[in-house]
TrEMBL record:
Subcellular location: Cell membrane
Predominant cellular place of this UniProt entry's protein: membrane
Pfam family, one: GntP_permease
GO molecular function: gluconate transmembrane transporter activity
Protein name: TRAP transporter large permease subunit
Keyword field: Cell membrane, Membrane, Transmembrane, Transmembrane helix, Transport
TM segment ranges: 28-46, 58-76, 96-129, 136-154, 174-193, 225-245, 251-277, 298-316, 336-365, 377-400, 420-437
Family statement drawn from the similarity comment of this UniProt entry: Belongs to the GntP permease family.
Species whose genome carries this gene: Pedobacter endophyticus
Length: 438
């Protein structure tokens, strides 16, 4: 009965948004209240649960998304995105620019949190799209597929890193196996799949339409690439130094502070204000206008993400994920496949890849020990399952939809299907590795 209620509530959400054209944020609020009541949460607790869900998700994403949008707007307005696109095309050529985008997303995605990588890469995607008249999804999906896969499969991202600890796996070996699984998943879900999406029309945010500028007015390639890659450099350093420093090192707290994604984005924004703003003869007033326009563009996105957080919290506090897991725990099936299935179903119901992964870990760990399943492969199987079935209760779904200006139908055909492809290919890769290792 619980699963049926969840399916009916998700169906209602889709109907409100797609059929009755109700604002997505209001739809989330309505469905969150109804879902809480249908699942038997105490009435007095439902409002606080919704507020907590909204606060939790915005608390972790507001600085990242807002600062990232400001940086993206400045990258576009300063001509840095145009310069990066020119250099990329010169190096890889028009024929291979799609693969260049995929490689960029993969390299950036290893140390970079998905939300940061997304808002940083969108301006680059659209600079290539508008300058060279290429289909937006054909160019953008390979890069975003790479970001998503690294987020779900590879440490030091939160869910895989936590799974390594819970399963007593080896961080380095998991990363090595993860790279072997991630590459084919990205290639199939990115460049190959996106060829089928060339006909989908997009209406992206005007904020990310790269303004054509004369070559002499563009910032240098060094300034442009350094500003875009600075978050990667800082976060990579923050991930590397704790591995070589002792736990009682006096500099470690400073490194952890400077490596926090919100702190990184603030530092990068300050640096970009100088390199792409003041040093390019823009006044501080002009730069602040650019930043204000960027905030206006992403305000609704933040509200929609907050709404998805509210629904996720209702589903989490109702115990849906644990109930579903209990139903599946005693199914006689290969542990790696069972872990993938549990994570995929929880992901479908609660929307969060991290919640799906960590919930599955507690359920599957005893079975993993009993069957002596490789813990490194178990991390990847759960990670692959946690990427499956992204839909309307996933903030990543709405980021993609709103930034690219897609209809709900086209978002399912592109983003949701891509996530399902990479999750499925990831499972196949894990099973093949299991055969090879054993």
């Amino acid at each position: 009965m619980t699963i049926l209620i969840v399916f009916l509530c998700i169906a209602l959400l889709i109907v409100l948004i797609s059929v009755f054209k109700v604002n997505a944020f209001l739809s989330f609020l309505i469905v969150s209240f109804l879902t809480g009541m249908a699942l038997g949460l105490p009435l007095a607790k439902i409002p606080s649960s919704i507020e907590k869900g909204m606060g939790d998700i915005l608390g972790s994403l507001t600085i990242i998304i807002t600062a990232g949008a400001m940086l993206g707007k400045l990258v576009a307005e300063s001509g840095a995105a145009q310069k990066i696109a020119q250099v990329s095309m010169a190096v890889f050529g028009r024929k291979y620019i799609q693969w260049a985008m995929m490689l960029t997303g993969f390299l950036i995605g290893i140390p970079l949190y998905y939300g940061v990588g997304f808002v940083l890469m969108v301006p680059l995607i659209f600079s290539v799209v508008y300058r060279y008249k290429l289909p937006a999804l054909y160019i953008g999906l390979p890069m975003l597929a790479a970001l998503s896969v690294t987020h779900g499969f590879l440490p030091p991202h939160p869910s895989p890193a936590a799974l390594v600890i819970q399963f007593n796996a080896d961080m380095g070996l998991t990363l090595l196996y993860g790279l072997a699984v991630a590459v084919p998943a990205i290639v199939i879900g990115g460049p190959l799949f996106s060829k089928a999406l060339k006909g989908i029309k997009v209406a992206p945010l005007a904020s990310f339409t790269a303004k054509e500028m004369a070559d002499e007015d563009l910032p240098s390639g060094l300034k442009s690439f350094f500003t875009a890659l600075l978050p990667v450099i800082l976060l990579a350093a923050a991930s590397f130094f704790p591995l070589i420093l002792s736990a009682d090192s006096p500099v470690l707290p400073y490194i952890l502070f400077l490596g926090n994604p919100s702190v990184v984005m603030l530092i990068v924004l300050v640096v970009a204000t100088w390199l792409l703003g003041l040093s390019q003869r823009k006044t501080i007033t002009e730069i602040m206008v650019i930043y204000a326009d960027a905030v206006k563009d992403i305000a609704l996105i933040l509200l929609i993400i907050a709404g998805s957080g509210a629904l996720k919290q209702i589903l989490t506090e109702s115990g849906v994920s644990n109930q579903i897991a209990d139903y599946l725990q005693h199914v006689q099936i290969e542990p790696l496949i069972l872990a993938w299935v549990i994570a995929a179903i929880i992901r479908f119901c609660v929307g969060s890849a991290t919640v799906a992964g960590l919930t599955t870990a507690g359920i599957i760990f005893p079975l993993m020990q009993q069957t002596h399943t490789d813990p490194n492969l178990m991390v990847l199987a759960v990670g692959a399952g946690s990427l499956m079935f992204s839909h309307v209760n996933d903030s990543g779904f709405w980021l993609f939809k709103e930034y690219f200006g897609l209809t709900l139908k086209d978002t399912f055909k592109s983003w949701a299907l891509m996530e399902t492809i990479v999750g499925t290919v990831g499972l196949v890769g894990v099973l093949l590795l299991n055969i090879i290792i054993n």
